[in-house]
């Protein structure tokens, strides 16, 4: 897709507006007209830049993420996890979780959104997590045939879904740290 030249600042403004609108009205009610009005831009510019609403939403969510997990390498799996958690912001994590809950239904009814989120958000995150885990295998911290290796993403997603449902509490660093120590690391034999 041909992308025009937007400054990083302008792109950031657009992404912030998209995320704000998502929180306010949800995915289904979010329109390119609303994004254009909020950002004082034209729909033509938005379509030229991103091609579609699902692409714009996925890129806005991706831009909101910190650096790739694969860039974290402290020399131990426990250290890598502690470093990942050190770069999380409780308030932002709660906002992100609310966004993802809001998108969960839309993903099931919109294949284009599902594809865009998988391609731009989910797969890069899973690839980064897999690299962190494979480094732990290469260092001998985790057995290569440990069946839990394939289930770590499922465990993490479960934590993000279950805590608000069971405890009516948001997922925060303290909870994730305890969850890694009690569930994820022991299942990996660490």
From TrEMBL:
Sample GO molecular function, one term: DNA-binding transcription factor activity
Q: What keywords were assigned to this record?
A: DNA-binding, Transcription, Transcription regulation
Q: Where is the HTH tetR-type domain?
A: 8-68
**InterPro entries in the record:** Homeodomain-like_sf, HTH-type_TetR-like_transc_reg, HTH_TetR, Tet_transcr_reg_TetR-rel_C_sf, TetR_C
Highest taxon listed in the record's lineage? Bacteria
Q: Does the keyword Nucleotide-binding apply?
A: no
Q: Name one Pfam family in it.
A: TetR_C_11
User: Which residues does UniProt assign to DNA binding?
Assistant: 31-50
Which PANTHER family does the UniProt entry name for this protein?
A: HTH-TYPE TRANSCRIPTIONAL REGULATOR RUTR, TETR-FAMILY TRANSCRIPTIONAL REGULATOR
Name assigned to this protein: TetR family transcriptional regulator
Query: What lineage does the source organism belong to?
Result: Bacteria, Bacillati, Actinomycetota, Actinomycetes, Kitasatosporales
